Amino acid sequence: MPAEFLPYLWVLIAYLLGSISTAIVTCKLMGLPDPRTVGSKNPGATNVLRHGGKKAAFFTLLGDVLKGLIPVLVARFVLGMSAEWVMLTGLAAFLGHIYPLYYHFRGGKGVATAIGAYVGIHWLAGMAVVIIWLFVAKILKISSLAALIANLLAPLIFYLVTGNTAIALGISLIVLIIFWRHRSNIRNILEGTENKIGPKR
Predict the structure, then answer these.
(1) Residues 8-42: tens digit of each pLDDT
(2) What are the tens digits of pLDDT across the range 94-103?
(3) With contact defined as beta carbons under 8 Å apart, do 24 and 108 qualify?
(4) How many structural domains is the chain composed of?
(5) Does residue 39 sit within a domain?
């Protein structure tokens, strides 16, 4: 294969890896209900936590983060791709999680996979987003609100740290999609009915 086609191939592979639903696989292996059939019906760590417990949620979260992190790290340090292609790799993994090929293009909301991609693109900027996410979640106890606040700040953080406009624009696109996927959560937050973090009682 000509070397110039390698970035295109790797972006496709990142999408296919992102399409693997950690939540669905974890729940099936642990004998738990399919997360698409309970609670918010979202195949993500927060819904798994409420209906499957901390252990299942941990593996779901870990897998979703790694789906975004590993393809980006390979693009950077193994394939030596440019910053723009690295950004596209992270975006592809993120889109795979949201619109998975293996599950009729019906996936999760993408926050954990986005976080993994952020850290892979630039560890310092990515960890700043993670810290904001965890801090807000600890204080407000609302996972979706913490994710929205952290991601809203992500493009600015990445621009300040990297000075790369292409990366900041790519992150902005991810953030716009995250907000669109969280539109029902935003409505619930405004109405005061959004679920708190923790197992469903």
Answers:
(1) 999 999 999 999 999 999 999 999 999 999 988 88
(2) 999 999 999 9
(3) no
(4) 1
(5) yes
Residue 57, domain member (yes or no)? yes
pLDDT of res. 1:
61
- Domain-located, residue 201: no
Q: Which residues of 165-186 are buried (b: 16+ CB within 10 A; e: fewer)?
A: eebbebbbebbebbbebbeebe
In angstroms, the first-to-last Cα distance of the chain is: 55
How many residues are there in the chain? 201
DSSP string, the chain: --GGGHHHHHHHHHHHHHTS-HHHHHHHHTTPPPTTSSTT---SHHHHHHHH-HHHHHHHHHHHHHHHHHHHHIIIIIS---HHHHHHHHHHHHHHHHS-GGGTT-----HHHHHHHHHHH-HHHHHHHHHHHHHHHHHH--HHHHHHHHHHHHHHHHHHHH--HHHHHHHHHHHHHHHHHTHHHHHHHHHT-PPPSS---
Predicted confidence (pLDDT) per residue in 45-93, tens digit? 888 988 889 999 999 999 999 999 999 999 999 999 999 999 999 999 9
CA distance 67 to 194: 27
Range(s) of the domain holding residue 180: 3-191
- For the chain, percent of residues with pLDDT exceeding 70: 97
- The angle that helices 183-191 and 143-162 make with each other, rounded to 10 degrees, is 120
